[in-house]
């Protein structure tokens, strides 16, 4: 049974982010096949699926780290035009620094582990062209504070911090420039359950205070259930189902989604 | 009277792929609901009462039929409406009340209750004042207002949940056994609030274990028990509530 939903009629704002018909192969392996995703302003979109389903590949494309073989990517922002996959490296770097924030599962991917935490956040601002030392220091501090990072540890390098704190530094770096889109790739995987709850709570708080549009990838359905308004389910590179989070969890339609939801402890 | 909801030939069943079976929930249901009307769903266990509520709320996807809702943006079919529109309507015009609270770590009872008002654009201070008023009405002790409900007893959580669900008047309210296991004070407050909302024009559809609590509010009853005949007028309802097995 397929249900074809109408286009939005009440919410007349356009999607902030649109990925259209994106496909990507690595050699013989098709990582993503004809995936389309729309995310509306202020919304939290969850992407679930098992390892190798293509969910992280999709997220990396949203961060312009990876270019698909076919498909387009647009952001509905005043000074951003056209298919972002066609931008050159310099334009991509600038766009990512100013409009998109990302938090990786592995903090080594997002942070310089031996530089101070505040320095890591300030680096993001430097890329965007800020050169005044006091402004850098202030803005970094505000972002770290919003991420509920203990300010007495501003100068500690991430290598000396716990996993939960490292994620807060990543988060501060990601939100320092108030990005339009925040991407989260398994942000709490590998953390203790109690720390995980605190990090999720910080994210939820940020989302409510700042109305940040988020895309969160996780294989942990509990994380997605807590965070997401809408969910897409991926399997073997294909989006097999999408819907409101409560509908996906309470009345999953696709055999794979049913299996996934029933497997949750 | 304004028609708030026009349900046409609504059918819902579940496909259980791992068992390779279909399970029917309800079939070909039609009814209309006007502003200020209170509709009681009754039926045996498993007749599909809660399933119908969840299908109207779009937590469940219907297989066929239409649910035409008179929103402030015009008529919209809740079965086929885009997800973002449903999210918007849930925040502004359609409420769902259950007995279960979705508590969040580090969010106080009063903040949780105030949230729907905050989202509707009320100031933080006004929303908190109103939240405290409702916590007090439902009998939540003042010492608990600033505490985190994750650690509350089931009964206290339920009161917080009701305060939150009923703080913002909505056009359509779906009630899934909100009175189950409530103490007398909370139950009285709930019934008073429902009566108030009803008089302000909120249309309601409810499932109640003990409909006696709300018997004076009920305008109509739909019996979802297969092959049941549906009594439609007020006298029948009053009679059923007094003599019913509930």
Please explain how this structure is put together.
The complex is a heterodimer of chains A (265) and B (246). Chain A is an alpha/beta fold and 265 residues long. Chain A is 38% helix and 22% strand. In chain A, the strands form two sheets. A six-stranded mixed sheet of chain A has the order 5-6-7-3-8-9, sandwiched between helices. A three-stranded antiparallel sheet of chain A has the order 2-1-4, with helices on one face. The longest helix of chain A is centred in the C-terminal third of the chain and has 18 residues, at 193-210. The two termini of chain A are 27 Å apart. In chain B, 43% of the residues are buried. Chain B has helices at 49-57, 83-92, 109-119, 124-137, 154-166, 184-199, 234-243, and strands spanning 3-16, 21-34, 38-42, 64-71, 74-77, 94-97, 172-176, 203-207, 220-223. Chain B is of the alpha/beta class and 246 residues long. In chain B, strand 4 (64-71) and strand 5 (74-77) form a beta hairpin. A five-stranded parallel sheet of chain B has the order 6-7-8-3-9. In chain B, strands 2-1-4-5 form a four-stranded antiparallel sheet, covered by helices on one side. Classes of the chains: A alpha/beta (265), B alpha/beta (246). The interface between A and B is medium-sized, with 31 and 30 residues.
């Amino acid at each position: 049974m397929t249900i074809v939903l109408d286009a939005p009629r009440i919410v007349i704002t356009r999607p902030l982010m649109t990925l259209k018909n994106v496909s990507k192969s690595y050699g013989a392996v098709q990582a993503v096949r004809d995936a389309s995703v729309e995310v509306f302003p202020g919304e939290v979109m969850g992407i679930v699926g098992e390892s190798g389903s293509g969910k992280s590949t999709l997220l990396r494309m949203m961060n312009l780290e990876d270019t698909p073989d076919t498909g387009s990517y647009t952001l509905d922002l005043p000074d951003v035009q056209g298919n972002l996959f066609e931008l050159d490296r310099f334009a991509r770097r600038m766009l990512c620094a100013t409009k998109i924030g990302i938090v990786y599962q592995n903090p080594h991917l997002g942070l310089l582990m031996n530089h101070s935490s505040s320095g890591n956040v300030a680096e993001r601002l430097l890329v965007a062209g800020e050169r005044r030392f006091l402004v850098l220091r202030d803005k970094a501090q505000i972002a770290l504070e919003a991420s509920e990072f203990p300010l007495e540890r501003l100068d500690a390098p991430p290598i000396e911090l716990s996993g939960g704190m490292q994620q807060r530094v990543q988060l501060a770096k990601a939100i320092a420039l108030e990005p339009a889109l925040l991407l989260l790739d398994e942000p709490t995987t590998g953390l203790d359950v109690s720390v995980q709850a605190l990090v999720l709570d910080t994210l939820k708080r940020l989302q409510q205070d700042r109305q940040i549009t988020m895309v969160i990838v996780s294989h942990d359905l509990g994380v997605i259930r807590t965070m997401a308004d809408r969910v897409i389910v991926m399997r073997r590179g294909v989006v097999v189902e999408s819907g409101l989070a409560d509908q996906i969890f309470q009345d999953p339609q696709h055999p794979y989604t049913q299996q996934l939801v029933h497997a949750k402890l | 009277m304004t028609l708030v909801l026009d349900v046409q030939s609504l059918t819902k069943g579940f496909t259980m792929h791992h068992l390779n079976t279909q399970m029917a929930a309800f079939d070909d249901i039609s009814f209309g609901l006007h502003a200020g009307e209170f509709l009681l769903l009754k039926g045996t266990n498993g007749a599909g009462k809660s399933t119908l509520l969840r299908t109207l709320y779009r937590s469940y996807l219907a297989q066929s039929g239409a649910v035409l809702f008179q929103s402030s943006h015009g008529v919209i079919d809740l079965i086929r409406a885009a997800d973002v529109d449903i999210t918007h309507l849930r925040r502004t015009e359609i409420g769902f009340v259950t007995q279960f609270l979705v508590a969040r770590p580090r969010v106080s009872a009063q903040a949780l209750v105030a949230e729907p008002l905050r989202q509707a654009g009320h100031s933080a201070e006004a929303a908190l004042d109103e939240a405290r008023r409702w916590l007090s009405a439902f009998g939540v002790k003042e010492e608990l207002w600033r505490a985190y409900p994750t650690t509350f007893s089931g009964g206290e959580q339920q009161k917080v949940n009701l305060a939150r669900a009923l703080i913002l008047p909505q056009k359509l309210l779906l009630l899934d056994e909100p009175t189950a296991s409530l103490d007398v004070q909370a139950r009285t407050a709930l019934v008073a609030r429902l009566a108030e909302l009803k008089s302000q024009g909120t249309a309601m559809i409810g499932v109640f274990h003990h409909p006696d609590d709300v018997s004076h509010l009920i305008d109509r009853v739909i019996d979802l028990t297969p092959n049941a005949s549906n009594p439609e007028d007020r006298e029948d309802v009053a009679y059923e509530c007094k003599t019913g097995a509930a």
